[in-house]
Every structure is written in C-alpha cells, then in structure tokens.
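Student: Please help interpret what follows.
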Amino acid sequence: MRRIARAALRLALAGLVAAPALAAPGLRLSWDHCYADGQVVNRSFACNTNTGSQVLDFSFESPVAASDRTGIELTVHFTSSDGSGTLPAWWQAASSPSCRTGLQIAVADPGSIGCDQPIPALGGAGGLTTLAPLSVSPAVWRMLAAVAVPGPATFTVGPGTETFAMQLIVRNVRTVGTGACAGCSTPICIGFGMAKITESTGFSPITILAGGPNTGGGPANVTWQGAYTSHYAFNGSGVFADFSCAPTLPVPVRASTWGALKALYR
C-alpha cells in the first residue's frame, strides 16, 4: 500500500510540474494572429519587395469584469537595436513628415480564433496618431492608437477572456528600388505599453500596463529581424519608457566546472 501511495504521489507531483501555468491578466502582442492562437515573437523579412504586409495583433485580458466598455486607447513603443538613438526611416511610417506611409490599423482579424473580437461586430473603427520619440527617453518612439464602438453600443471584458484590440498592418511599400526607405533590415523591438479600456463617461477606465522589466521579451513584446528585448518597463507616465534592444540574443557565458579547470593543468 505504501508503494502504491508513493507512486500516486509521484504521479501527482509530475502532473503539477507538467501542467502549464495559467496566463495572468495583462497585455498581449503577437505577429500574424492573436496571442491566444500561439505567440509569434519574431518576424524576419528579407526586405526584397514593396508588396504585401506584416501584421501585429494587439490583445489583452482585463483583470476586472465590465460590460459597459466603449473604447480602447493603446500605447505602443518602438526602439532600435543599432544604438543610433532614433528609429530607422523604414519604421517612421506614421510620423510627419516621413519617408513612407506604411502603417494602418484594422479592428478585426478574421484569421484569429482564440480571441474575443467584440468591436467589429458593433461597427467599431479606429485610428493612429503620429509616431514620435518620447521627450524624456528619445531613443524610444511612441505611437498612440484608439478604437471605439458607436454609442450607445458597449462591449464586455473580463478575466479569463482574451480580447482583441486592434491589428497593426505594416505595409512593405518603399522597401526596395527608387525612393526606398532605409532601415528595413535593422533589428528593432516593439512593446505594447498600455491599454486603457474606457466607458462612455471616461471617468472609470480599466488601465493595464506592460510592467517590467520584461527581459527577453514576454507576452507584451515582439521583435523584428531577430532583435532581443533586454529590458522593457513602462510606468504609464506617457513621457518615459525604459526600453533596451539588442540586435541578437546574447550568447550565454558558459560557467567552467572544477573538473574542467583541473583539466587545463594536466
């Protein structure tokens, strides 16, 4: 009986170890489709065509339930890995003036099945503001976006439900040839800094921050051309974000064992 009890305990412990951790409420970001369908962290692009586009899906899980929401305000951060302190011209596609106009948003993603998508069903729409460097941390560029449903419609959010906010469409225009914009091949990091889920009065928003530091990325971070998010934190102030980006995943330093050290002197 003791052997059976010990075996049962081992199986129970193994089950606890193997079971995946439940995702906490927060912000989500993924290439290609909603995070709930499996996060795609990095996008590599050969930068050899002006046709087609890349897409980023922004979603979230609210920590509290509410059925009276009317809109979502989003803060998105971009930073380069090249140490120049500015964003490549290819990415300044929503700034003014800019080399190209290659960013636009959609409020639905027909290819994503894991996220609740209430806004398109209610006739919602959205838009982007200018992409520009932050005043206190100019190496980090901020883009604001907003989506909303027409009154008196409302939508519901809450724990246990991943809600789709918007899709950012990055068009490949002016990548090659005459008038091409430089910097498509530069690795960059992208972070979903904040979502403010509003209701009609605007006085009781549900605010979700990416938090940090998210070393190596996380649910609210993705990369472009193999970049590595070495640090990302956002306090919601709107003027400062701590965002560090490396061009590649750092090579880990291998620790030498005592046996290996002794072998050097044989």
